[in-house]
Each structure stands twice: as C-alpha cells, then as structure tokens.
Fold this sequence. Notes:
- By secondary structure, the protein is α/β, with parallel strands linked by helices.
- Helices cover 47% and strands 18% of the residues.
- It has helices at residues 4-25, 36-44, 51-63, 73-86, 100-108, 122-134, 148-154, 171-181, 207-221, and strands spanning 90-94, 114-119, 141-145, 159-164, 182-191, 225-230, 236-241.
Amino acid sequence: MLRFGARHSVVGRSVRKAQxxxxxxxxxxxxxxxxLEIEAYAEQHSMPESAICCTLREETQQTMEYPQMVVGSLExxxxxxxxxxxxxxxxxxxxxxxxxxxxxxxxALPDEGTVITCEINEQxxxxxxxxxxxxxxxxxxxxRMGPALDTMRTLIGPFDLIFIDADKTNYLNYYRRALDxxxxxxxxxIDNVLWSGEVLKQSPPDESTAAIQELNRxxxxxxxxxxxxxxxxxxxxxxxxxx
Length: 243
C-alpha cells in the first residue's frame, strides 16, 4: 500500500499528465468526418437526448475549459443503444469528464443496473456529481476518483460494457485490463480512435497519436476479439470477445 505522501504524488502526476492531454486538445476542433448537416439529420432521426443530458451538455460547453471532450448527443444515443443491445447490467467507464456519457449509460440500464465511472479531475467530477444528484438514474452511478489503472486493478468483473475515453497514452493498458474484466458476451467501446485524422500520419506527431495507432493495430491483430471502427464523431472502436 502506498503511504499518503507517495499516493498523493502518484495522483498529482496523473492529474498533470491529464492536463497535458487537455492542453493538446485546446486548439483542436474535433475533425468532422461527416458534413454538419448530415450529422444533424442523424441526430434528428436517432433516439432523443434526455432533458438533463441536454442541460449538462450545455453547461459543460459554457463553463468547462475543454468542452469538446463531452460526447455529443449522437454518440450518446449510440452508447445508449449499445447498452440496450448488449443487455448490460454492469458498465465500467474509464474517463467520466462531466458525466454526460455516464448518465447515458444509467438511462439505458435496467433498474438494478450499475455504472462505475473513473475520473481524475475534481473540477469536472464536481459538475458531474451535481447532475447525478438531480437525476433519478444518478443512484446507479458510482464515481471512483484517482488513476483509472489503479481503480481497474481493484475491480472484479464481469462487466457487460466497458467504455474507454481517458488519457490516450494509456489506451493499450486500459484495453488489456478491460479484456480481463469483460463478460463473455460483453463489448468494449473505445473513443477518439481516429484522433481528428492524426492517426493517418505515418510519423505520429505526439505520444497520444502514437498510442492510439498502436492500440488500433493491436486490436486489429488480436485473435481473441473482433472489432469494427465506426466513424461516429472522432471514431469509436467496437470490440467483442470471440474466445
């Protein structure tokens, strides 16, 4: 067990690392792989966004320094649909931000369903807690603060759905641990796997791009799973265990 001072140092390093990733996003507008009018049409013809999710998304966009990190309503609808298709009862989320996606999962889960969501930034977690307290489905959500890999090591599966959307340099580590925790018929969803098109560059411009490229190669070659990379928003990798 880490002494308090040592653990505080580990958490501090993780927070600083997350802040560096956030700063790298500051000047990036999420690459639009689909024309805006087509995306709007898709949103209009997908399951509707709940009122509380809409309010949370709007407050995130108005008050948070990196609002582009919140999943949009179309991706939120996709997450809800996947939760329902899998018949999930236990969801694990790696990277909560302000809680939009956690609320989407909670809304799609049955009454006895649960979401464990990992976050390291206290400012975004505070906003999420406020909305979870307002929502009837908020009781299904448990927030685990601290480095996600540390949290994942303490968890016992199986989880029916695991959503990975945290620091990109740890994506491969998250994926490997997620496979250990995944139910036999479960699904792993990994966000931002197109990284605004940066993954197309043969010489990756930064460590986050390199990490996502390595993840995509690893999953594609992993004989234990089958996967589809879908071009919703910034790319979502949908992974199912086959053995």
